[in-house]
Specification:
Elements (H helix, E strand, L loop, with lengths): L1 H48 L22 E5 L3 E6 L4 E11 L7 E4 L11 E5 L4 E4 L5 E5 L3 E8 L3 E9 L12 E10 L9 E9 L12 E6 L4 E5 L21 E14 L3 E8 L3 E10 L11 E10 L8 E12 L2 H5 L15 H21 L4 H33 L1 H10 L4 H15 L8 H19 L25 E2 L2 E2 L2 H16 L7 H18 L4 H22 L15 H19 L1 H5 L2 H21 L24
C-alpha cells in the first residue's frame, strides 16, 4: 500500500511540475513577445525624434560636424599602437601587438574596434534633457606631436577651450603595467567673461566586445572601484531580456545602468581577456554610466549580441573666467594579467573578478606563471598545458595526507557496514535507538564519519579558485596542448567536431571514464540505496557538469582524478592492514555519546513538565546540571583522602570535640 501511494504521489508531483513549467513558459513567452513589441515601438519612436546615443542632437553645439575628415595619428611602443583620431581628440583604437585578433590571424587584437563605438576617452558633458552624457564629437586640432606624445585643442562658441594631452608611459622603470599605460591630461578652460558651470564631465572608458568562450557573459562588464575597496559592477546580463527560471526572476533589458558612488578611484570596462582601466590623479570620480552597443542582433547566443561601453563621471564647480577644470590620470589598455594589474598599485587587480576565492586564485595564478616561465623553455608550444599538469601535481602532493585520511576512512566505514546493517534490522522501527547504537559503535571503534569529508571541503575552494583563475586569465587564450587548440574553450577534434549536431568534447568524456574507475576503486561508505545510486551516477553528473567548461580546467580535474586512482591503488594494497580495534580510552565520539545519553536520562527524570518549559529555560537548567556533574566528577577521586572538601558547620564554628 505504501509503495502504491508513493508511486501515485511521485506521478502527481511530476504532473504538477509539468503543468507549472508549461504554464510558466507560456507566460514567459507571451511576456517576452510583449517586451519585444514594446522595444520595437520605442526604437521606432526614438528613430523619428532622436539620433543614436553615441551622437549628439543636431541642435546641440556639440553635434557631430558634417563631412569631418578623420585624421589618424599613432603613438607606438613594442607592446601597443595607440591610434588617435581628431574626432573628439580621443583614441580610435588600441592595437595590442603581442596578441592575435583570432587564432592563426596576422592581425592584432584591437581594443575599441567595435562598429558604432565612440573613440575611447571621448569627452562628454551631462545633458539634463536626456539624463545621459552628451559626447563632444567635433573635430579637434592637432597642435603638437612627437614620437611619444601629442596634444589636441578645441574652442567651443567662445566659452570653452579644451586641451587634450597624451603621452606613452616611461618603460625604463621595469614596471609590469608600463608598456600598456597612456598618460593623459584634459583641461576645460573658461575663456568667456562670465562664470560657467560645466557640471558633470564624463570620459569614455572605451568599448569591449564579448568573447566566444564567455558563454554566459559573466566577464563582460564595467567596474567602478571606490575608496572603501568596494567593486560596483554593471554586467552585460543587465542589458538582455531574461525569462528567469520557470518564470521566476524574469527581467527586462535596461537601456543603460548608472553607478553612483563617491569617491571612485578607478573604473574599467572588460571582457574575458582584455580590459581598459582609467585611474584619475588628484581627483575622484562620482561614478558613471554603462550601456550596451548592439553588434549582432542575429547571434544565437544572446550574450554575444552586445558589446559594453561606459563613461566615468567627474563633478566640477562653477568656473570663473580663466579657470580650468582638469582631469588627468593613467589609462591602461591591455591583457587581464594579475601581476600587470597589481603593479598599478591601486587595487586594479580586482578587474580579474576572482570573487570570494581570490585568496586561492591569486597564488595559483602566480604559481602557474612561474611554472610556465621554466616549462616554456623546454616546450614553448605546449607550455601552458604542461604548466596546468605540474600545478595539479603540486596541489595533489600537498593534499596527499588529507586524501589518504579520506580513503582510509572510507575503508573503515566499509568494514562497519555489516554491523550497522544488523543494527538497522534489529531496531528497524526505532530510529532513535538506531542512532544511539550507531554512535555507540562508532565511539567504541574510534570512527569519525566526518573524517572523509574534510578533504572534499578543502578541495572545493581550490577547484572554484582555479576555475575563476583559468576562466579570466589572458595567458591561456589560444594556448595549444595535444589536440586542444585553445585551453580557454571546450576541446574538440577537427576531424569529428560534432556527433548528431552535438559538439564532441573529448576531455569531459575521458574525465567521466576516469571518475567511473575512481568510484569503483574507492569503497562505498554507506549501504543506503539512495547514496549508492548517487555514487553510481557521479560520472554522468561530472560529464554534464564539465561538458561546457574550459578545457584547461577539465585537464586539471582529469589529471587530479588520475592521481587519485594512483593513490587509491597504493592504499588499496595495504587494505588488510586496516583493522577495526576497540578503543581503551574514550575518544571524541565516545564522549559525545555519553553526553547524549546523560542528557536523555536527565530529560527522562524531569518528566513531561520539563518539556513544556521554554527552550531558553531548558538550556539554563541543562547548563547547571552539566556544571554540577563536572564538579562531582572532579571531586570523586578526592573522596576518602585528606584533600576531600569538608562541609562547614552551619553556625560557622567548628564542632566541639567529643570527650
Amino acid at each position: 500500500m505504501d509503495k502504491k501511494n508513493t508511486i501515485i504521489g511521485v506521478l502527481l508531483l511530476c504532473a504538477a511540475f509539468y503543468f507549472m513549467f508549461d504554464s510558466s513558459s507560456k507566460e514567459a513567452r507571451l511576456a517576452q513577445e510583449r517586451r519585444e513589441a514594446a522595444a520595437a515601438r520605442f526604437v521606432e519612436e526614438q528613430s523619428k525624434t532622436k539620433v543614436p546615443a553615441h551622437k549628439a542632437q543636431t541642435s546641440s553645439p556639440f553635434a557631430l560636424e558634417e563631412n569631418i575628415k578623420e585624421q589618424i595619428v599613432t603613438l607606438k611602443n613594442e607592446d601597443i599602437a595607440v591610434n588617435f583620431t581628431n574626432i573628439g581628440g580621443a583614441i580610435a583604437n588600441v592595437e595590442l601587438l603581442k596578441y592575435e585578433n583570432s587564432q592563426g590571424s596576422s592581425d592584432h587584437f584591437a581594443f575599441n574596434a567595435v562598429k558604432g563605438a565612440l573613440p575611447a576617452l571621448t569627452l562628454a558633458l551631462f545633458d539634463p534633457s536626456s539624463d545621459l552624457p552628451e559626447p563632444i564629437v567635433r573635430a579637434f586640432s592637432l597642435v603638437e606631436s612627437s614620437d611619444v606624445s601629442l596634444r589636441y585643442e578645441l574652442i567651443i562658441s567662445g566659452k570653452y577651450k579644451i586641451e587634450r594631452f597624451y603621452s606613452l608611459a616611461d618603460t625604463s622603470k621595469n614596471i609590469e603595467c608600463a608598456p600598456y599605460i597612456l598618460k593623459t591630461r584634459t583641461s576645460i578652460k573658461n575663456i568667456s567673461r562670465q562664470d560657467i558651470s560645466p557640471g558633470e564631465v564624463f570620459l569614455s572608458l572605451g568599448t569591449v566586445p564579448p568573447t566566444a568562450s564567455d558563454v554566459y557573459g559573466s566577464n563582460l562588464a564595467s567596474v567602478f572601484f571606490d575608496a572603501d575597496k568596494n567593486s560596483h559592477y554593471s554586467r552585460s546580463s543587465a542589458f538582455i531580456n531574461s525569462s528567469g527560471f520557470l518564470g521566476i526572476g524574469a527581467s527586462q533589458a535596461k537601456p543603460y545602468e548608472k553607478i553612483s558612488a563617491y569617491p571612485v578611484t578607478w573604473a574599467s570596462v572588460k571582457n574575458q581577456f582584455f580590459a581598459s582601466v582609467f585611474t584619475p590623479e588628484e581627483i575622484y570620480s562620482t561614478g558613471g554610466i554603462t550601456f550596451p552597443i548592439l553588434i549582432d542582433s542575429s547571434a544565437g547566443d544572446k550574450y554575444m549580441r552586445n558589446a559594453i561601453s561606459a563613461f566615468m563621471g567627474f563633478e566640477f564647480k562653477t568656473l570663473k573666467p580663466g579657470d580650468s577644470a582638469v582631469i588627468n590620470g593613467s589609462y591602461y589598455v591591455g591583457p587581464k594579467e594579475l601581476d600587470k594589474l597589481y603593479s598599478m598599485g591601486g587595487g586594479q587587480e580586482e578587474v580579474m573578478n576572482y570573487g570570494w576565492f581570490g585568496f586561492v586564485s591569486r597564488p595559483l595564478s602566480r604559481l602557474m606563471n612561474w611554472i610556465y616561465s621554466w616549462v616554456s623553455i623546454v616546450s614553448p608550444e605546449w607550455g601552458w598545458g604542461w604548466s596546468i599538469i605540474i600545478l595539479t601535481l603540486i596541489v595533489r602532493a600537498l593534499m596527499w595526507p588529507l586524501t589518504s585520511i579520506q580513503i582510509k576512512s572510507a575503508q573503515r566505514m566499509a568494514k562497519m557496514q555489516e554491523p550497522l546493517k544488523a543494527i538497522r534490522e534489529k531496531y528497524k522501527d526505532d530510529n532513535k535507538r538506531i542512532q544511539q547504537e550507531t554512535m555507540k559503535i562508532y565511539s567504541e571503534y574510534g570512527i569519525n564519519p566526518l573524517a572523509g569529508c574534510l578533504p572534499i571541503f578543502i578541495q572545493i575552494p581550490i577547484f572554484i579558485g582555479l576555475y575563476y583563475m583559468l576562466q579570466t586569465s589572458c595567458e591561456i587564450r589560444f594556448a595549444h596542448f595535444l589536440w586542444i587548440k585553445d585551453l580557454s574553450l571546450p576541446d574538440t577534434i577537427e576531424a569529428i567536431p560534432s556527433v548528431f549536431g552535438i559538439p564532441l568534447h573529448i576531455l569531459p568524456i575521458l574525465n567521466a571514464l576516469v571518475t567511473f574507475i575512481q568510484m569503483h576503486l574507492t569503497p562505498t561508505p554507506s549501504t543506503d540505496k539512495s547514496q549508492a545510486m548517487m555514487f553510481k551516477l557521479m560520472p554522468i553528473i561530472m560529464l554534464v557538469f564539465f561538458y561546457t567548461f574550459p578545457s584547461g580546467l577539465v585537464l586539471y580535474w582529469l589529471v587530479q582524478s588520475l592521481l587519485g586512482i594512483l593513490q587509491a591503488i597504493i592504499i588499496r594494497r595495504g587494505k588488510d592492514k586496516v583493522v577495526l580495534k576497540k578503543r581503551n580510552k574514550p575518544g571524541f565520539m565516545q564522549r559525545m555519546q555519553e553526553a547524549m545519553e546523560n542528557a536523555q536520562k536527565v530529560q527522562a527524570m524531569r518528566g513531561e513538565e520539563f518539556k513544556k518549559l521554554p527552550l531558553r529555560e531548558q538550556l539554563r537548567i541543562a547548563r547547571e546540571d552539566a556544571m554540577k556533574a563536572r564538579k562531582s566528577k572532579q571531586n570523586d577521586p578526592l573522596k576518602g583522602t585528606m584533600y576531600e572538601k569538608r562541609k562547614k558547620n552551619p553556625g560557622g564554628r567548628s564542632t566541639r570535640p567529643k570527650r
